[in-house]
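[SOLVED] Predicted holo structure with zinc ion

Edit: marking solved, answer below. Original request kept for reference. I posted the sequence and ligand SMILES and asked for the 3D complex as structure tokens.
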Amino acid sequence: MQILLVSDLHYTLKQLDWVSGVAGDFDLVVLAGDHLDIASIVEPDAQIAVVLEYLSRMAAKTAVAACSGNHDLNSRNEHGELAARWLEAATAAGVLVDGTRWETDEVLVTVCPWWDGPRTRELVGEQLAADAAIVGDRQWIWVYHAPPDASPTSWTGKRHYGDEDLVGWIEQHRPSIVLCGHVHESPFKADGSWIDTIGSTTVVNAGRQIGPIPARVEIDTDARSARWSSLAGVEEQSLAGV
Ligand SMILES: [Zn+2]
């Protein structure tokens, strides 16, 4: 299975165009959050309409998973915590959004929301526990905006800016692959990286770059390889585990 990971497109239309153009070359396209740009002069509702249109175009070509990032939270969920409720509209086009899973004989993909409060964090824990019970011997892939804390994939150049709870969940559940974003600089900084290994888990964060083509990670689950492509060049590494 061929997977494309991009993240943190932040309403960069040329990069959304690029992803739409190549989506059909992959079995699964993952956009790991921060679809919107809260600093943009374009109104959030207008950004949302455009991003939903791009997501449905991609989903017409292949399987698409899109989780929320901290820039995507436009309303509150039933627990009073900030959430990207607008993403739910993408399910009409078949897009896998926060709180959903995608299954084949080969893989189980779990799409997690950005949690902005204790109740949503609890729900993520419950979601992961539920999928742990059914994953069996398939490769388990998580889509999760923030990278784990204390990892080169969450290094800003000055400090780690990752998710401590994710570290605990990775140690508890040992997924095969965690697909992240959030810390744009990690792959480009000394002591940072686009890839990390935690036990038998491979964590990747493609980072964010300027220009019409996003920084990206392509994963081949059969060859068990991951390839990062960006303005800084191309690097390839084997996935962790057996
Ligand atoms: Zn971002």
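OP edit: The pocket of zinc ion is lined by residues 8, 10, 34, 69, 71, 182, 184 (CB under 6 Å). Thanks to everyone who chimed in.
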